[in-house]
Amino acid sequence: MAERMLKFTTTPKATPAKRAAETRSHDFHEIYADFIDAKAAEQASRCSQCGIPFCQTHCPLHNNIPDWLRMTAEGRLEEAYELSQATNSMPEVCGRICPQDRLCEGSCTIEQSGHGTVTIGAVERYLTDKAWEMGWVAPLKPGPARGRSVGVVGAGPAGLAAAERLREAGYAVTVYDRHDRAGGLLIYGIPSFKLEKEVVDRRTRRLAEGGVEFRLNFEVGRDATLDELRERHDAVLLAVGVYAARDLTAPGAGSAGVTAALDYLIASNRKGLGDTVPEFDSGALNAEGRDVVVIGGGDTAMDCVRTAVRQGATSVACLYRRDRANMPGSVREVAHAEEEGVVFEWLAAPRAVSGDAGRATGVRAARMRLGAPDPSGRQTPEEVEGADFELPASLVIKALGFDPENLPEAFAAPDLAVTRWGTVKADLRSMMTSIPGVFAAGDIVRGASLVVWAIRDGRDAADAIHAYLSQPALAAAE
Ligand code: FAD
Ligand code: SF4
Ligand code: SF4
Known about the structure:
Number of domains: 3
Helix content: 25-40%
Bound molecules: flavin-adenine dinucleotide, iron/sulfur cluster
Largest sheet: 5 strands, parallel
Low-confidence stretches: none
Structural class: alpha/beta
Radius of gyration: 23 Å
Number of helices: 20
Shape: globular
């Protein structure tokens, strides 16, 4: 093995080719090319096959990274793919959009020794893209029918991961979603320059062809109550994500031209999917020829600034009240945005939206500094007096984060217990909510999080539902 692996001292780290900023800023295609075969093997061979692989510990799915890297280096690609998909329902999605710098790669031992991390995400993506290309991705094979059904509310990564596993275990599975397409934020949140839609659609098609029923344009709360779903199914999984956007309270925040991030991103994604989008066509949600200010410092803000660049904005600025080191978004995404011409105003908070006849013309911002740490140890931003400044903006995008909707009210389910933040309370082990037979997974339990955690939760919830429905008492009650 040693001669094929441990090449990190002689082989430098390399990522797949990235398209130049001047070219990629004009389209919505993904920015990285795939590894060519030889490069994937070469990069996988840099792994030192750690006895205690911290990469694996810090991957939420505990992917068996060292083993599939070794197989890739040895050219055993189909085996490597089989191993990687054994723990991950969508390895090619995670390979593209996990913030690896904070997860697997951030813990790679050779990075700590100054040699540059193994490019785990890029190899993971390469393996599964290769598997699709070669026909190694097998059709979903439903297990022997159990005569029991599960309703999954939400077709995001948590719901899809659960649906796949439940169907494989022989359950009849119906996935309900209020959107007209399945995929959740993978389709309508995350732009295609990070994750092309076909990558998600082929996953959904595989589920549908394997017998998972999709009921789209179906909103629980409007088209059925939770009680009605309980009647229809033996168990229900809530995987509805978090969609109540935090609002901007500054004066002028109600002006025309001030919009919520997800409305903006959904319009752009729909346009890319070929839909007719009146709010885009009217110019209301199109950044072309406009000065744009995005408020916020997370992944959503990064997606908005980079979308605005691609739509042909005149200028794009991002206001964040803390500094670069303290922003919640991925470091890699900030670097991409800077390359594409986005200006970051660190330590800046909106004071007011300036306007003319009710239309936004700019954002007045206060300069901040980081003060004393709060009880969590995070430094609190405080204003620097007399240092306000103004940025031009006819489109102001609010990307301040998301909270859960009021589910007990929306679902006419007062017994559904929620935390003080509005997330659904679910038992850590059984994943069951306060309502027997109703489970929950993904962002609606964790609060806004990551795709890889949603997949992990969806898989765990499927196992928990299977354990619940396999109890002798429930089987006897049939
Ligand atoms: P979602 O993906 O939100 O799916 C929930 C689904 O439930 C939706 O399809 C919704 O329509 C449906 N639904 C909601 N209510 C109802 C109802 N009443 N009836 C029927 N259906 C309903 N994470 C990363 O790891 N990497 C990234 O780069 C990244 N970028 C992001 C960019 C943006 C703009 C956003 C907003 C998030 C990003 N995230 C990223 C976070 C990630 O997308 C989420 O953590 C993940 O999608 C959560 O999965 P989920 O299945 O819990 O919920
Ligand atoms: Fe890394 Fe994400 Fe893949 Fe895990 S799923 S190995 S964290 S890229
Ligand atoms: Fe290989 Fe890095 Fe994981 Fe060690 S931590 S097994 S070097 S990928």
